[in-house]
Write a structure and sequence with these properties.
Elements: H1 20-29, E1 35-40, H2 47-58, E2 63-68, H3 75-90, E3 98-101, H4 105-114, E4 121-126, H5 135-144, H6 162-180, H7 184-215, E5 217-227, E6 231-244, E7 248-252, E8 260-269, E9 272-274, E10 276-278, E11 282-289, E12 306-308, E13 329-338, E14 350-353, E15 356-365, E16 375-382, E17 394-399, E18 402-412, H8 421-484
Helix pairs in contact: 4-8, 6-7
Length: 485
Amino acid sequence: MKNSSNVVTFIDLAGHEKYLRTTISGLTGAFPDYALIVVGANMGISKMTREHIQVAIALSIPLFVVVTKIDIAPEKILKHTLKQLAKLLKSPSCNSKIPIIMRKKKDIDTCLSKDKFIDRITPVFLVSAVQGDGLDRINLFLSKLEPRKPWRHNSTLDAISEEEKEPAQAAQAAAAENKEGDPVEKAEQEATKEAEKEKEQHAEHKKDEEKKEETMGELEIDETFAVKGVGIVVSGTVTGGKIGTNQKLFLGPFSDGSFKEVQTRTVHIKRVGVEFALEGESCTVALRFVKRKDVVDRALIRKGMVLVSEVTKDKVSSVTGIYLGSVWAFTAHIMVLHHPTTINPGYQPVVHCGGIRQTVTIMKMSTERLRSGDSALVDLKFLCHPEFMHVNRPLIIREGNTKCIGRVILLHPEYNIDDNSHFKQIEEQLKEERVRQEMMQQKMLEKEKDIQSAMGGKKKKDKDKDKDKDKDRDKDADYRSRRKY
């Protein structure tokens, strides 16, 4: 571990339709950086392959595809599988991805240089585990991938952050001065001064974040264990700050919304004892309750609960700027991918959000009803017990054949069914965000053209080289045949 340049952790998820719940909870709760979709070259694109690709894209997880068993697949079937895969990835349901087959090691470098986190490009690898074809390219690709930090929390819903606003305002001011006829030198000097100020502010902001990370810690629980001689042990992913030994934390929320004070005994990562675990790392933590009256049975600690260093009731945390407490209801912006009929208030589906998996009731919607393809703001209330949530978390809603995707917009510590004022405020913010997304899409389209031209230019060069080689071979063959005669 110490001598390795990169450590890649694989989480094997179920491929069968019967275990789709487990797959979704793994994708939402384990916070993977990337999704690896395995396709059999001789089997083609199955129903569950489509489902898994769509779920990964709905959760904004970049993916790449490995086509296996190319040694036993006939050429016609392999070509048909690749055509099906390209058609699926290029479709609007998959956000019009760009599938590119990584035939050479150079293709990996060009792909990652154009799209660092493979948000738009979907690399496709052709592999044979028996003959070992393509395995070196996958190893090289995995060694060059960078972590995305999908566990980060966003405390606000602002479409453009203050850091992004300031340079835009500076550019507008400089442009206005140039229009009025002022000299260009003044505008340049002011722009440099503002850039220096921005750097100083950014450095101060980084220092503040580091201080916050030192004081706070958050772990989302995946599993619980009862170990003889140790007591209760929980495992999960650190989603904020760090979790260390002998650290006082709060465990919850329980069925009544309360949190119990606990103290960590030991922390282990990959079965090795460590002093602390940083955000993004999966670890196991041995706990003990500080007060005797707070001691609970292991059965009461469920998946989706958290260990946090601070709990606030009806307030925003002074350290993190995020609401830290139990929530019975929340507002989400959802899009209905498929529903047999219509969705009305009172409908009770199952929500998957991080480690949370619970039935919710739709209390009210910004529209009268929802059908397939519609999107709206929806107030959802948990049916069994409160949960610990964060704003901007992606979620999946399922019930039978019903599929909805969305994200958490607003948390309601105390829910009032008669209050509709928050819908108008959120809709205004979403309009601003749509404008920003349209601008980003235009930039992405320009990037796509550059990527396709770069990859197309390389293919043309390779084709030209192959043609030249074929010509040389033909000439040699002609010469040899003439010598014979």
